[in-house]
Amino acid sequence: MRVLDIDLDFFLNDIAHFANDYGDRLDESEYIPWKEAEVRNFLEFRCGLRIDNKVKGRILTHHQEAFLFWRDLIDKEQLKVPFEVIHVDAHADLGLGDASWVYIMQNLLHRPIEKRRYPERFHYKSNYDKFGFGNYLAFAIGCRWVSKLTFVTHPEWHNDLPWTLFKDLTENSGIIQLRKYDKKINLDTYVIRKVEPLEVEPEVPFFTVPHTEFINDEPISFITLCQSPGYTPKTSDRLIPIISEYIDLI
To answer: Is 23 domain-assigned?
Structure first.
């Protein structure tokens, strides 16, 4: 099965790298949404969507809600694991800039598979190592939900891939492979290069594809569209009903 995971900030002229996803919207004069025709062209000719053949999905506010939606679909046996994810976003959402990789490798991966789906949640301004909008894809991989991850990049994208998640500790490997470590060690970016893991997780092929080169020619099982209010101007909200025309909301 294949999930199309879209963030509204993909359809902007520029990327906000530091924003409060629980605060004010971006400056409308600086961040300009794509035109309707450009959005429809991307959805139809790049993603393979059609208005007369809508795909079931959900409109989200903050992007970690995608994880919760997938979990609900899995529990209802509507989404079978592992599944492919096509992530259309201005950001990788794998946790660069926070310490979630430490939590995942020294806490989450110590749990039985069926209990990993209930991670401790991120609380803005109180911790940066738990589940949240900027790292939910890493948690989905930690749950062994994802068989393949394709990241369709924004024209202005700069590498925001956390090397700690990748096989051989380099994103150039093209494979995400989480590593389980002893809880007693003080794990950091220096130690992870020196200490052998207790176990390694299954490999997840990872691809970055510029949006001008991306073509999907296989059926999409579900769609998520995230507003991400801290990373988008209010003017971009006008694109939501346009994109919604391709979604059978559930």
So the answer is: no
> 43: helix, coil or strand?
helix
Amino acid at 221: S
CA distance 213 to 148: 18
Residue 244 lies in a domain: no
* Residue 57 bridge partners (DSSP): 223, 249
Which DSSP string do the residues of 162-175 spell out, in sequence order? -GGGBGGG-GGG-E
Query: Which residue is it, tokens 């359809």?
Result: 11
Within 121-220, strands assigned E span 146-153, 175-176, 179-180, 199-200, 204-210
Cα–Cα distance for residue pair 110/169, rounded to 1 Å: 20
Classify residue 99: in a domain, yes or no. yes
The per-residue pLDDT for range 77-114, each reduced to its tens digit, is: 999 999 999 999 999 999 998 889 999 999 999 999 99
The reported pTM is: 0.95
Is the pLDDT at 145 greater than 80, yes or no? yes
How many residues appear in the chain?
250
Whether 76 contacts 114, CB under 8 Å: no
Number of domains in the chain: 1
For residue 209, is it within any domain? yes
Rounded distance, CA 101 to CA 188, Å?
10
Distance CA 246, CA 54 (A): 5
